[in-house]
Amino acid sequence: MFIDGSLLADYLIIGISILVFVSFVAGFLDSIAGGAGLVLVPAFILTGMPPQLALGQEKLVSTLGTISAIYNYFKNGKIIWKVVGYGIPTALIGAYLGGKVILAIDESIVGKIIFFMIPIGLLFSFMPKRTKSDKEYQPGKKDIWIVLPLTCFVIGFYDGFFGPGTGSLLILALHFLARMPLIESSATSKIFNFASNVGAFVAFAIAGKMAFLISIPMVVGSIAGNYLGSHLTLKNGEKIIKPLIFISISILFISLGIKYII
């Protein structure tokens, strides 16, 4: 049975258009509460991509898409630059190592650990939030030398190893462990998430687990979603961050439960 060439082209255009829209939604969600991988990885797998290629493709789209959100937060002074240098190196190293070992270690071990830790994160999300401004935030020596490097390494490793939900986990970790204000946590987490994405990106690119050509329109969609989402966050603050973090973490919890527990 032969398929008409024009019909095949139509299917291809429709498929790519859907993935561009999905990338836009993922970028929008990621810029506010993290969780691009929760949308992108299942979408890529549903198109028939092998799991490792889907993970690599998500790193490609998310890494480039995050830049517009970083620009928005940077322009509005919401990134806490004085702590950035302490987490970037460990996020890079952790994500690279996570990407390298994903085929060597049973990912269900990490998935189950994250699954059982997520309810704690959801509990934290209901607790009263600090509302002090960035100017009042002063990280302690423990935050700089222990909390930030260790947190970025562990979550970076998870990002390279599996990925979905990394941004949400970073926001919660920065807010509760490093005691950052919520909006600044969301903004600063983008720097660390970008670093972990780059580390994982390198590992997957070396392994040939990316399809660069078809990613171009998806990257454009992700950039647009990130820009709009970060703009809305700056206007609406915690009112938009809180529910989307809850939704993002809940989706991650359900997806990991289906994959690793059920």
Number of strands: 0
Count of individual domains: 1
Radius of gyration over alpha carbons? 18 Å
Low-confidence stretches: none
Helix proportion: over 70%
Number of helix segments? 10
Q: Would you tell me the overall average pLDDT? A: 80
- Please write the string of helix (H) and strand (E) elements: HHHHHHHHHH
Major beta sheet summary: none
Beta-strand residue percentage: under 5%
Dominant shape: globular
Distance between the termini: 40 Å
Query: What is the SS-derived class?
Result: mainly alpha
Membrane topology: Multi-pass membrane protein
Transmembrane segments: 7-26, 79-97, 109-126, 147-178, 198-228, 240-261
Subcellular location: Cell membrane
Family: Belongs to the 4-toluene sulfonate uptake permease (TSUP) (TC 2.A.102) family.
